[in-house]
Every structure is written in structure tokens, then in C-alpha cells.
Amino acid sequence: MRLPHLVIALVSGALALGLATLSGEAAAAEAYPSRPITIVVPFGAGSGTDIVTRVIAQPLGIALNQNIVVDDRPGANGGIAATYVAKAPPDGYTLLMSTNSPHSSNPFLLKNIAYDPVKDFAPITRIGSFTNILVVNPAVPVKTIPELIAYAKANPGKLTYASGNTSGILAGETLKHWAGIDILQIPYKSVPPALNDVIAGRVSMGFTDLTPGLPHVSSGALRALGITRLRRSVLLPGLPTFDESGLKDFEVESWAGLFAPAGTPAEIVARLNREIRKIVENPQIKAQIAQIGFEVFGSTPEELAEFVKDQLVRTSRMVKEAGIEPE
Predict the structure, then answer these.
(1) Is 113 helix (H, G, I), strand (E, B) or coil?
(2) Rounded to an integer, what distance in angstroms lies between the CA atom of residue 202 and that of residue 207?
(3) In what order do the strands lie in the sheet with 184-187?
(4) C-beta of residue 193 within 8 angstroms of C-beta of residue 129
(5) Which helix (H) or strand (E) holds 11?
(6) Under DSSP, is residue 260 helix (H, G, I), strand (E, B) or coil?
(7) What are phi and psi of 70, to 5 degrees?
(8) CA dist., res. 219 & res. 13, Å (int)
(9) Mean pLDDT, residues 4-8
(10) How many Cβ atoms from other residues are within 10 Å of residue 327's Cβ?
(11) CA-based nearest residue to 205, from 11, 232, 239, 213
């Protein structure tokens, strides 16, 4: 007759332990954050991702009443930063400002990566999308994409292009495949050093997002030929798209989103999502970021998770169509 009492005692104890655990998690989330938060950026200082992260970090620190540390960890198309965050404690104090490079391109451009873009991360919110353009050194005797294609066909193997992220790789290899031209890729860890070599004439051209590229175009140090998305930019309204330039439906877009390590408490993810969406929906922040060529907007964690899955499918198709072999 004592067995039922023993079972009841065990169930009651387990229930109490579960409630205590839940209570502890809720209390931890309620106290969050109690120390500085680090946002890891997968590219170098001065890159578009770095600049956007720093713009958002300042109001986020005020909202959370904590310091936000921006930690640039370039390399392996963002894989170094992604691996670091994937292995960090899931406590909300180490986050990743990811992009399409580590989260949707690396699985198809690299033979081995040390993280899973879906299983190893807790999505928080999308941040927005970049506008990518093709720029050339002014010494290259072309002013339009059709002129570039004609020049490349007349001078096979003479032109080189710099890529500081996977958007640049996809755009460059897709251009080669679609236009049937021979241009050599020169890889870099980040866009700023890639642009420096294009400006210096060591590389013929390169793909860049507007954030680091626009100042050089405005100064005349670089000449912009076209936009890799299907609509023009309000910052460069006279610059045609690749689609308008004869490469129909040519589109390579890049995006940014914030992630935490998998297993981060839902309450912390919800808190970060709530605070960041307030920031990116602020008209003043929107206007400030728009001036550096970035379209800012938020999402739910669930929407970001579905977006990543869709991007993996899309990127896989693009890589196969362009005939890109993983390295």
C-alpha cells in the first residue's frame, strides 16, 4: 500500500523541480541583461555589416541599459564568426549579426563548415537588406555593363574581380556564366580591403554593398556600372540594374539578421526581438541607415527561421546554375 504514496512523492518532487527550473529561467530572463552583450560581426571594420551593427548597437545599449560590444571576426566568408557564436553559451550575451554569407551561402561554397546554419542558432530578427553594386577602377575603359561584357570578350582573362563576401562571389560567377566571359576572382576577407585594391588598380573591379562603396563612387575613385537587384536605388537613381542592362532577371541580394546560439531561453530571444524591432521601426533610425544604402526592417524569430530555409534553397540553385565548385 506504500507504493502509491512513493509514486505520488516522486511525481510531486519532479513537478516541484520542474517548476523551480522554470521559475529560475524566468528570473534569469527577467534580470537579463546583467552584463555587457557582444554582437559578433562576420566581416571587418568598415564593412556594411559592421557599420549597420554599430548604428543599431547604440540605441540597443540604451534600451537594455547595458554596453553593447561589437566584435569583428572576419574570415572564411563569415564562417569564423558563425562558428564562434554557435559554440558560445546560450545565455543571450554572445550574438551574431549574420548575413547570407555564413547563413545561406557557406554550406554550398565551402566543402566543410563547423556549424549548422539552422540547428546551431536561435533566430532573433531580420535587420534588413543591402544594395549591391558592381564598381570598376576608372582606368578600365567601360562605363556600362554591356561595354564591360564586350571588353571582357575581346580581352579574355585580362579582367579580375574582387569579392569580399559570398554575395560578391555569387554575383561575379553568375555574371561570368550568364555573359560567357572570362574574368578571374580575387577573394578577400571583407569588402573594404577588396575596394582598396580596386581603387589602387591592383584588381579591375569588384562587387560591394552601397554602405562602404558609395563614398568611393561619389568621390570618383570608383565607377559604378550596375545594381545587382531588380530595382534601382534611391541613392543612385541613375544607375541601371543588371536586368535593365541586358541580363534579364539577374538578381543577387544580401541580407542581415541577428541570431543567438541554439538553446538561448525564449524569454531572452523575445526581449531582444522586441527591443530591436522598436529600434529598426524608428523613423529616425530608418532614415539614418537608408543614407548608407541599407534597407532596415524587422521580423519575428519564426519569420527569420523560415527566411533562412528559403534562402538555403535559393542559394543552392544559384550555385549549381553558375557552376561554382565548393572550395
Answers:
(1) coil
(2) 15
(3) 184-187, 160-163, 205-209, 132-136, 223-227
(4) no
(5) helix 2-31
(6) strand
(7) -100, 120
(8) 71
(9) 42
(10) 11
(11) 213
CATH 3.40.190.10-classified regions of the chain: 132-227
Helix/strand/coil for 125: strand
Neighbouring C-alpha atoms within 13 Å toward the C-beta of 316 = 7
Q: What is the pLDDT of residues 283-308, one digit of tens each?
A: 999 888 888 888 899 999 999 999 99
Max CA-CA distance within the chain?
Answer: 95
Number of neighbours of residue 151 by Cβ within 10 angstroms: 17
**Cα 132 to Cα 233: distance, rounded to the nearest angstrom:** 10
Q: Are 123 and 305 in contact (CB under 8 A)?
A: yes
Separation CA 203–CA 136 (nearest Å): 9
At the fourth CATH level, the homologous superfamily of domain 35-130+253-322 is: Bordetella uptake gene, domain 1 (3.40.190.150)
For residue 133, give the amino acid letter: I
Domain with CATH 3.40.190.150 in the chain: 35-130+253-322
Map residue 316 onto helix, strand or coil.
helix
Q: How far apart are CA 4 and CA 320, in angstroms?
A: 63
Encode pLDDT of 203-222 as tens digits: 999 999 888 999 999 999 99
Q: Quickly tell me which residue has 561554382 as its cell.
A: 324
* 132-227 classified as CATH 3.30.420.310: no
Query: What pLDDT was estimated at residue 26?
Result: 52
Report the side by side order of strands in the sheet with 121-130. Answer: 68-72, 37-41, 94-99, 254-261, 121-130, 294-296
